[in-house]
Amino acid sequence: MYGGRILVAIGAFLAVALAHNVSIVTDAPLNREVLNLLVWVLVFSVIIFAGVTGALLYTIVRFRRRPGDDALPPQFRENARVEFSLTLIPLIIVLVLFVLTAQALVKINRPIAGALGVEVTARQFWWDFVLTEEGLRLSNELVIPVGRPVEVKLTSADVIHSFWIPSLAGKTDAIPGQTTYNRFMATKPGNYYGYCAELCGASHANMRFRVIALEPTEYQRFVDAYRAYQAPEPKTERARRGQEVFQARCAACHAVKGTAATGVLGPDLSIFGNRLTLASGVVENTRENLIRWIKDPTSMKPAAQMPAFPDLSDADLEALADYLESLKLEGFDFRTLPRF
Ligand code: HEC
Ligand SMILES: [Cu+2]
């Protein structure tokens, strides 16, 4: 009875998982290695499960008490052969798994020639990315090309965080004072969700990021444009006022390429107008959210490390928003990319 129900439950789970595509994405080299290990562990588990339950069932049926069985059945103590095999078989299984794991670890940790270097610094509660070769800083939304492996060099500026892009790569801890590595590759253009996967404080759950994967030519166009980019001069009186306020109140922590703002305590806002999200992937980048954020970041993100600006007038807030939205690389729109 129960067995049947359990089988139905497992079947239903698998059907739902398949229908919802809860699959491990095997494009990424690291994920593929881990998936292979999982298959081996599963195979051994099934063999052991079948062996143990099979022996148990056989014993129960074969040696059950029958009418008239009144005498004590034969009693055994110690059986060297059984004990020897019960030690040897698990030992072999553990050794096989050990060798497979060691092989996978070597493969996963081997540097990939020609990989795109990205330096990642995790902070409470946001992510800083630098495209190493190009020397370009991008905060919270990393732009990469499709079809080229990415080698992430990871560290943390404060506590332990963990870098995780479920559709592309396994988790890697970001540890203060240490460098760790994560390697992955996107095979489809898209807007991939990333998360912090290590409890790091009040806004741990609000510490997300995006990876924007572009076709190689589109990526190259982006890199060339961003390299040459200098923040455009404000075109309206209000945006000009916004820039003044920004220089006075925000530039100590935020950088805008091509201006006097060079702060590094907060995310780089050079191409804020191209950004899809605000506050490290927590809300959509809309004017309403932006103004709410500047007035009081902790109302949207507990313990956020940016001060509130309750003293800014509505006019100044609108001016700041005008200015920030004008910081844009023309000709790029990431909103239409599929999401993973
Ligand atoms: C003391 C440093 C500091 C000052 C001053 C500061 N910020 Fe911030 N800002 C931060 C930090 C840190 C974050 C990241 C917070 C988070 O996401 O957890 C941030 C995040 C932001 C974001 C979201 C960026 C993103 O990538 O999602 C915007 C927009 C922003 N600040 C605008 C401003 C404006 C406008 C001002 C001036 C009125 C300002 N900041 C002043 C430190 C500062
Ligand atoms: Cu974190």
| Main sheet: strands, sense, barrel | 5 strands, mixed
Strand arrangement, largest sheet?
A: 3-2-1-5-8
Average residue pLDDT = 88
CATH uppermost class of the largest domain? Mainly Beta
What would you call the shape? elongated
Question: What would your notes on this structure say?
Answer:
It is a single chain. The strands form three sheets. The protein has a five-stranded mixed sheet. With 340 residues, the chain is α+β, with helices and mostly antiparallel strands. It folds into three domains: 2-61 and 77-109, Helix Hairpins, CATH 1.10.287; 116-220, Cupredoxins -  blue copper proteins (Immunoglobulin-like, Sandwich); 237-326, Cupredoxins -  blue copper proteins (Immunoglobulin-like, Sandwich). The two termini are 41 Å apart. The protein is elongated and about 105 Å long. It has seven helices and twelve strands. Helix 5 packs across helix 7. Bound molecules: heme C and copper (II) ion (CU). Copper (II) ion binds at residues 122, 161, 196, 198, 200, 204, 207.
